[in-house]
Specification:
Strands 22-23-24-25-36-31-30-27-28 form a nine-stranded antiparallel sheet, with helices on one face. Helix 9 packs parallel to helix 12. By secondary structure, the protein is an alpha+beta fold. It is 23% helix and 31% strand.
């Protein structure tokens, strides 16, 4: 009997150990701009030699390798031998490790294009198979982008660097991550059992393959559990969890460890990307504005010069655009956004962003100098307690006695009034100045403009200036707000007790107390939608509010957010990525300012004026019926008024970029719709041919366009939220 019990116990122990065999993703994250000491290449090569069973995954900024070769070419050559031997996989080949959810879809494409192009110079045999990141560098449209670049696999894990967020826990060992266009990529998710750590505010329990994590995975039927940490370049520990581990590359894990047949499908929404930064802080706001302005400028410049090349006026200036894109891509580096104050005075990440984006602007300005003048369309009338601003689209009553808020907003084309008193009010918690204050507490002084008016007022003693402008035939109501801060004014949720950055509750999470501009409306029981890179998310949130690291909600506005009651709607446009507010008893609002404690106990301060540009569009139906993507694109790229190369018909399809490569016109199309669309491009002259290509340049499977009629018209089918790239031979 004892022998039987002994054998049974041995079987249970051995069986349990066998069932809990685990794998681990180790490697390094960083680069010459973030953190990469000169000795690091030699260190990695020597560690790989000393530990034959150690395999690593890297996301090192491509520009790092030029420095590494200069410092120690022998070390680089030794390192590259391990790369060519398959013991190293490059898992994030973007140019600057951007968060991706906070930039344009076209910027994401260029991050991969320029990054992979650069890396091929140093690692000619590189194959980019799996996308993975140490930070939450994810966005819902990645399956489409990755597969078009030739990637086969992805990871949605970032277990050891969750300061800026994480993905929603979902499923078991693997899923097919389904993008908004229907594209699928085999993915290792953050498992449903992969809880957030109760020991930190930056880790999940998968960070070191701890016993509790592996046991939970085993209990949930996960046969091949995997943990992950991409160490910071500069850490000197070698293999992260010791020598007795199954260190693997992601490629090897997917191709030789897991069985792809049993993967489930997961339609990932942008609201499954649970990310947050210190939105509303002045430093983050400026970075977001500078990046957005540079994105808009370079894409407009490319399109305008593409037309000039088509017309035979010039040659395509590829080298200049390469330089302009380089500095913009660097400004999209995740460290710019999450640790903007890091660095020496005058050379912080925030300083770098200013310098980089200024360089992009200068290059674009040197390529083309285009000026546009607005015409005078608005009529302004003096009324009781204020002014009435009117054109063919709107009638707007402004209460100058109460801070310049809008008391009446009547949309003539819709025949409906939208504003509730307090529309366009500034309000926030000035906790060192008596608490909550509003722009409605004092009157404003008004100056009349040809196309609108300018108001000057006060909020909690701080002067503000706001302009409101209208243009005939344009459904956009344009606002520019400037706050002339005289001191570092605390705004938001005050710290309770001693501040400890390890606490899950963080004051910058609480948007309800930040300085907001709010838009209470007559719309009731509304549905919320918001754009994301190459996507539109139909929000499932009851509200946008949270105050703890373990309850993050995706409350991010990239370009626009829209509310609708089904019959009519209202869209809010912003000039930078930030957060928005909305809830059952809380109006749609835009985050304007936060000042207080941020990440790592850093005091995020106000050090000068704040200027924010935003707009409101009133429309029938939902965001799609209101043509909101097109209106927003025109708002972002006002210089593109006429395309001399082709006309575009057949649906809501947008031209997101136009450029030239090897004598061919490259046109990227995007369908910002929940429905399949067909784009008809009618060229101004005959063309020799057109081919659909993938983002990596290869001809797309079935890559012939649907039709070329009279050598002048090209027809392209685009599924919902799909992008398609046309390579056009003009000869």
């Amino acid at each position: 009997m004892k022998r039987t019990l002994f054998l049974l116990l041995a079987w249970i122990i051995c069986g349990s150990a066998s069932a809990q065999e685990a794998w681990y993703i180790d490697g390094y994250h960083g680069g010459v701009w973030g953190h990469y000491p000169d000795w690091n290449t030699r260190f990695m090569a020597d560690q790989l030699a000393a530990h034959p069973d150690w395999n690593i995954n890297i996301e090192i900024e491509p520009e790092t390798w030029a420095r590494a070769i200069q410092v120690d070419s022998l070390a680089f050559n030794d390192f590259r031998k391990f790369f060519d031997a398959g013991r190293i996989e490059y898992v994030n080949p973007t140019y600057a490790q951007g968060y991706l959810y906070n930039i344009s879809g076209e910027s994401i494409v260029r991050q991969f294009q320029y990054g992979m192009q650069s890396l091929k110079k140093y690692f000619p045999n590189a194959e980019f198979t799996t996308y993975s990141s140490e930070e939450p560098c994810f966005t819902s449209a990645l399956p489409q982008i990755l597969t078009s670049f030739g990637f086969k696999y992805a990871s949605l894990k970032n277990p050891n660097t969750c300061f800026g967020g994480y993905t929603r826990a979902h499923g078991g060992e693997k899923v097919y991550w389904i993008g908004p266009d229907g594209s699928a990529i085999l993915t290792s998710p953050r498992y449903a059992i992969e809880a957030l750590s109760n020991q930190s505010t930056w880790q999940t329990i998968a960070w070191n393959n701890g016993a509790g994590y592996l046991q939970s995975a085993h209990n949930d039927g996960i046969v091949h559990p995997i943990g992950m940490t991409l160490q910071d370049a500069g850490w000197k520990g070698g293999p992260f969890i010791g020598n007795n581990a199954n260190y693997t590359t992601w490629r090897n894990y997917f191709e030789h460890v897991v069985n792809t047949d049993s993967a489930t499908r997961w339609n990932v929404s942008q609201e499954d990307i649970l990310v947050n930064l210190v939105w509303g802080s002045q430093v983050t706001q400026r970075i977001a504005q500078q990046v957005r302005a540079a994105e808009n400028k370079i894409l407009q410049t490319e399109k305008l010069l593409a037309m000039a090349v088509w017309e035979g006026k010039m040659q395509w200036p590829q080298a200049a655009f390469d330089t302009a894109w380089r500095t913009l891509l660097l400004a999209e580096h995740h460290d710019c956004w999450i640790v903007p104050y890091n660095g020496q005075p005058g050379d912080t990440w925030a300083d770098k962003v200013c310098n980089w984006t200024t360089r992009t602007h200068h290059i674009c300005d040197s390529l083309i100098d285009v000026a546009f003048a607005r015409q005078d369309y608005a009529q302004i009338t003096l009324i009781k307690n204020g002014y009435q601003l009117e054109n063919d689209m709107y009638r707007i009553n402004i209460d100058t006695v109460h801070g310049g808020v809008i008391t009446e907003l009547f949309a003539k084309k819709i025949n409906r009034s939208f504003a509730v008193n307090g529309f366009n009010e500034l309000r926030g918690n000035f906790y060192e100045k008596g608490g909550r204050h509003s722009s409605m507490e004092s009157p404003v002084r008004v100056s009349l403009l040809p196309d609108g008016l300018q108001m000057k007022g006060l909020i909690a003693g701080t002067p503000f200036t706001q302009t409101i402008t209208l243009t005939s035939g344009d459904p956009k109501i344009d606002f520019t707000l400037r706050l002339d801060w005289k001191e570092n004014t605390k705004i938001g949720q005050p710290v309770k007790g001693e501040y400890k950055w390890e606490k899950r509750e963080k004051p910058f999470y609480n948007d309800s107390n930040k300085l907001l501009v709010v838009f209470p409306s007559t719309l009731k029981n509304v549905h919320v939608a918001k754009d994301a890179p190459y996507d539109v998310t139909e929000s499932q949130l009851d509200n946008t509010f949270f105050n703890s690291w373990d309850s993050i909600k995706n409350n991010i506005i990239l370009n626009w957010v829209d509310i609708t009651d089904g019959k009519c709607g209202m869209a809010l446009f912003t000039d930078h990525t930030t957060s928005y507010t909305h809830g059952r008893n809380f109006p749609l609002g835009l985050d304007i300012q936060y000042s207080g404690m941020g990440l790592w106990g850093r005091n995020y301060t106000i050090d000068g004026p704040t200027t924010v540009h935003y707009a409101i569009v009133l429309h029938k139906g939902n965001w799609e019926q209101g043509n909101i993507p097109a209106e927003n694109m025109q708002w972002n790229e006002p210089m593109i008024s006429n395309n001399s190369i082709f006309t575009l018909d057949g649906g809501p399809v947008q031209v997101t970029s136009m450029s030239w490569k090897d004598g061919r016109l490259i046109v990227r199309l995007y369908n910002p719709s929940i429905k399949t669309s067909q784009a008809r491009l009618s060229f101004s002259r005959e063309i020799a041919g057109a081919t659909l290509v993938e983002l990596n340049g290869r001809t797309k499977a079935n890559g012939k366009t649907k039709a070329i009629m009279n050598n002048k018209q090209v027809i392209v089918d685009l599924p919902r939220f799909a992008i398609r790239t046309l390579s056009i031979n003009p000869q």
